[in-house]
Amino acid sequence: MKKRIALLLMTILLTVQFLDVQAVQRFPKPEFESGYVQPETLQPSPRAELLAVMDLVVLAAALAFITWLVLKKRSRMGVFWTSLFSLAYFGFYREGCICSIGAIQNVTLALFDSSYVIPLTVIGFFILPLVSTLFFGRTFCAGVCPFGAMQDLVAFKPQRMGVRLNAVLGLIPYLYLGLAVLYAATGTDFVICRYDPFVGIFRFDASLGMFLFAGILLISGIFIARPYCRFLCPYGVLLNWMSRFSWRHLTITPAGCIQCRLCENSCPYDAIDMPVTEKNPEERPVTLRKLILISLLVPLFALFGGFTGSQLHETLAGVNGKVQLARTLLDTAALAVKPEPFEITAYKSSGKPASQVFAEATEVLRQFYTGGWILGCFVGLVFGIILARRLIISYNADYTPNKGRCFSCARCVDYCPVTPLPKEERI
Amino acid sequence: MEESADNPKIDRRKFLVTGIRATIVAGIGGVAVLTARKTLAGQTVWQLDPAKCIQCGRCATSCVLAQSAVRCTHVYAMCGYCDLCGGYFKPETKTLTTGAENQLCPTNAIRRKFVEDPFFEYTIDEPLCIGCGKCVKGCGAFGNGSLQLQVRQNICVHCNECSIARNCPADAFNRVPASKPYLFKGFEQGNTKDKNREDRG
């Protein structure tokens, strides 16, 4: 009985105390006698939600329109004007966010973090270009993506890069994609947005670093056409994969290739596959040796990459906030620094026990260990496959766009002298 | 069978590519379904939780905008209308006048207006506010904490990754549904009003 009364008293006391905290302020609100009317705290609304839906509609319409221009009209001018529109709408009017490239991270985070709620428009921005590319090639890159449109405009004097340099630099997007997915999946950071070169230009509000990065890309883009798209863009990796299996794709010639070589130098992106017509195909023993070499080397690269990635997991996790906090708490020298870092102040005021911080950091490190293996395997595999591709000769009779790398900009189309077949003879 | 016999090689390749395409479509569909389970019809916006905020001052400098989208917001219903306002005056101030040397705000963004003895009303001149949080700290330390930092949604450009959130030492930034963009500490939201929302019904 005594116990019960004590409990009851405690409950009442606690409730009273709690109510006190809620209701009584340090300085109670005055009772005004002069008829003073208290102003309202204004809470201005964000951008109307309808506009976000409109963005999605414009994206779908632009994709459909440019696909029609590339595949049916075969009009370079049309692609050019569409890309100007996209630059104006998705770039300068919408100020960059959300874009399909960055949406990779939102989708990854939504897949890995159950507490993250993803807006429908973001899913749309991620999936629409992928699906359209899977059926019609990278028409999204041609003139819907504002990044591509911007770089396409400055590609005045494109130079040939050579197959090897293209292949080596072409590895960077895979690494970038892998890192972006790893950091998004662990909830650490959105690196694609962090190192986004052009969003500052779209907003006329770039930091110095961002401005320099964009400047370098745009100036080098005069000679190396679309440097971001070819050697950085992580979304381009996904689109490349999709486009390889596309149902329809831009063709250089409207009918049959007559090997006139006029289009040979027309592509600023080195994305035209030259004809390889070997009269004497390779001997069987040679191809067999190559096959054995490839099937040994590729898994080896993957394994080596995975091991390297797992060894680097502590370094990779170094930018994670939870890991950083745990490291600072363990470091007595860092704790003694005056003035106290804000992170420590915030940690103290949050009242979180140190054990919880360490547990969270350990969990993040574990995720990075697994993630490091996967990232490393992925990069190793890609490296191995790119090397293997150099060993395989693929025979090809005509000048064709490389379905993976071609941005469907339709520049080559203007160089082809072949007249389209009359309608009744078309297949 | 007989139709494809005249050119079996191309057909095999075609079949393979079609198969892969179908697999990819299924894969994308799978991702769409997985993500769409937790989807939100509307947009998300960035929200600053004042309960976690430690007024470090990074809001003023980390925003991608030259003048931060985080501004000080005055929750009037919580204000004590003090003469000696911890958010307005520097701690060592002796004469309670609006002289520049007395003001805590580095940009002179707080207006002090006499209401009736001994009460003063404080309003934020929002275009001048840089979101440094100095007044918020002062008000929280010596007053009721009615001055609070908030992301002004009409100014915010809604970056996919908020650069203030990235730099926030207290993890006070969250993505929240756009229908409830503001969060005040120690105060129910119902008493404040959003004019735009009211208009929309």
How does the SSE layout of this entry go?
The complex is a heterodimer of chains A (427) and B (201).
Chain A: H1 2-23, H2 49-73, H3 76-93, H4 100-112, E1 118-119, H5 120-136, H6 139-143, H7 146-154, H8 163-169, H9 172-185, H10 191-194, H11 199-202, H12 208-220, H13 227-231, H14 234-244, E2 272-273, H15 284-311, H16 313-316, H17 321-330, H18 332-335, H19 342-350, H20 354-391, E3 400-401
Antiparallel strand pairs in A: 2-3
Chain B: H1 2-5, H2 8-36, E1 39-40, E2 44-48, H3 58-62, E3 70-74, E4 110-116, E5 119-124, H4 134-142, E6 147-151, H5 163-167, E7 173-177, H6 195-200
Antiparallel strand pairs in B: 2-7, 3-6, 4-5
Please characterize this protein's 3D structure:
The complex is a heterodimer of chains A (427) and B (201). The longest helix of chain A is centred in the C-terminal third of the chain and has 38 residues, at 354-391. Mean pLDDT of chain A is 88; it is low at 16-23. Chain A is mostly helical and 427 residues long. Chain A is built from 20 helices and three strands. In chain B, β4 and β5 (119-124) form a beta hairpin. The model of chain B is unreliable at 1-5 and 190-201 (pLDDT under 50). Chain B has six helices and seven strands. In chain B, the strands form three sheets. In chain B, strands 2-7 form a two-stranded antiparallel ribbon. A two-stranded antiparallel ribbon of chain B has the order 3-6. In chain B, strands 4-5 form a two-stranded antiparallel ribbon. Chain B is α+β, with helices and mostly antiparallel strands. The chains are: A mainly alpha (427), B alpha+beta (201). At the A-B interface, α4, β1, α5 and α19 of A face α2, β1, β5 and α6 of B.
